[in-house]
Amino acid sequence: QLQLVESGGGLVQPGGSLRLSCAVSGGTSDSYAIGWFRQAPGKEREGVSCITSSGETNYMQSVRGRFTISRDNAKNTVYLQMNGVTLEDTGVYYCGARVWGCSWYRVQYPYWGQGTQVTVSS
User: Fold this and answer.
1) Adjacent-strand bridge partners of 5
2) Other CB atoms within 10 Å distance of the CB of residue 29
3) Neighbouring-strand partners of residue 77
4) I need a surface site. Which of 39, 67, 104, 121 has the fewest CB within 10 A?
5) CA dihedral 69, 20, 6, 107 (to 10 degrees)
6) Binning pLDDT at 50, 70 and 90, where does residue 92 land?
7) Are 69 and 49 within 8 A, CB to CB?
């Protein structure tokens, strides 16, 4: 029912910036949270940031102060502004949706996008 499509990934140098977008469609309400997860080569998918249906935000420790999550309900889009990226930020970034509140567990998100690749390299 709910569809999510990520965009905005690409190749960026350390210290650079990217803005990822998660376009949401097919829902009948805004009563869902959107989380950003990433998966680096050879590693498990980890939660990066999340925004609740009411606009409250959460960040993993290593991105706090560098990344900013926001949502534009008029455009049905959630953004992840990535500033001061490091090599450890490399990975495929996915957005997921679940009802109401945020979660750090990917199994609690029933809806996912296809992912967008972020490569941080000098």
Assistant:
1) 23
2) 7
3) 23, 72
4) 121
5) -40
6) very high
7) yes
Could you tell me the two tokens for 12? 């960026």
For every residue of 64-87, DSSP letters joined together read BTTEEEEEETTTTEEEEEE-S--G
pLDDT of residue 28: 61
> 3: part of which helix (H) or strand (E)?
strand 3-7
DSSP 29: -
Whether residue 14 is predicted with pLDDT greater than 90 in this model: the reply is: yes
CA distances from 92 to 18, 37, 39, 45, 50 (A): 13, 8, 5, 9, 16
**3 state DSSP class of 114:** coil
Which SS3 state, helix, strand or coil, does residue 63 take?
helix
Summarised one tens digit per residue, pLDDT across range 18-74 is 999 999 998 766 789 999 999 999 999 999 999 999 999 999 999 999 999 999 988
